[in-house]
Amino acid sequence: MTEETVLVAGGGIAGLAMARALRRHELPVEVAERGDAGRTGGLAINLPGNAVTAFAALGLGDGLAKLGRPTRRREYRSAAGKVLFAVDEDEFWGARARPRCVRRSDLLALLADGLDAPVRQPLAVSAVDGLDVTFDGGERQAYGFVVGADGVRSAVRAAMFGATTVRASVLSAASWRFMAPNPGVDCWTVWSGAGGAFLLIPVDDTEVYGYASATRGGPVDPDPSWLHTTFGGYPEPVRAVLDSVAKNPESLFHSPIEEIRLPGWSSGRRVLIGDAAHATAPVWAQGAALAAEDALVLAALLAEGDWDTVGARYEQRRRERVAHVQAATDRFSRAAGLPIWLRDRLLPLIGPRTYRETYGVLRVVGSEGG
């Protein structure tokens, strides 16, 4: 590698999107992936309309349209199954930005397909001194620019800013994620009660992606029995999925829901993107969307030149949009934690408006959003 090469630390969605965006501008790039994605590669991801738009801008629109299943409608239900409000996502986003639920492994494969840049794996960044990078095993290399796309536990962020506080989300301290046979759910559907929220999204004709968490910031027990204790009294589709995952515990993945809130995302020629910069609870499913947008904006700025000022210009273009998502996430998380009798009365009134206000801003793509 030469000192004109961009190092992207992290080969997940953010890192591969960054590499693709750079190669579209014919900039040299190398990706270093520590290789600890583990079994989460088999899970799925919900892509709202602005994510679909961002991946299309990376040249992946046709490929993405062949993955997973479109998400045409949302239903927010009570723990008893009553529809509190629903959203016609097809009408809101339109055909060109129709949301989709896809397997994460399929999305990663799409991002990697045809990428003419080296992806070194497993190769973990252990230290970053300016633009001199040390990898596990002692290898050292100088780069022209370093992008930290290495997630919540970012080594690049630690090198830039030292120890960073990782906070638990307002919504829930942790979650369970899983894949299961579809119990008859035909749209994005969440059931929410006093103990927690249970979300199912069809990923194809036979399988759903599931996500379960608390709703008042409390702990989510790493013992799978928490799922039955919390959701065992929910409607039949939920109970059917609980029975299925109980028979296949290897399909379950428990993880904390952690957030990163930083006053700055850059230091010289080092910049953070995606979860390394602004991890946010998945209330509005913006992890992949914001990461891809970050990549598009940062790559375009690097292509313009003057790499010494790119970090400041990148933050200026991205800060307002990310702050909007963070604020919307906190507001909805607090609403979800209200007493159930009050929340179930309020959501039919404020839910549709909150959806429109949150996603309406994200539906507009400009220089700040990729």
Automatic annotation (TrEMBL):
Keywords: Monooxygenase, Oxidoreductase
Pfam name, any one: FAD_binding_3
Domain (FAD-binding) ranges: 5-328
GO MF annotations in UniProt: FAD binding; monooxygenase activity
Stated name of the protein: FAD-dependent monooxygenase
Presence of keyword Glycoprotein: no
Record has Oxidoreductase as a keyword: yes
Xref: InterPro entries: FAD-bd (IPR002938), FAD-dep_Monooxygenase_BioMet (IPR050493), FAD/NAD-bd_sf (IPR036188)
PANTHER family: MONOOXYGENASE (PTHR13789), PUTATIVE (AFU_ORTHOLOGUE AFUA_6G14510)-RELATED (PTHR13789:SF309)
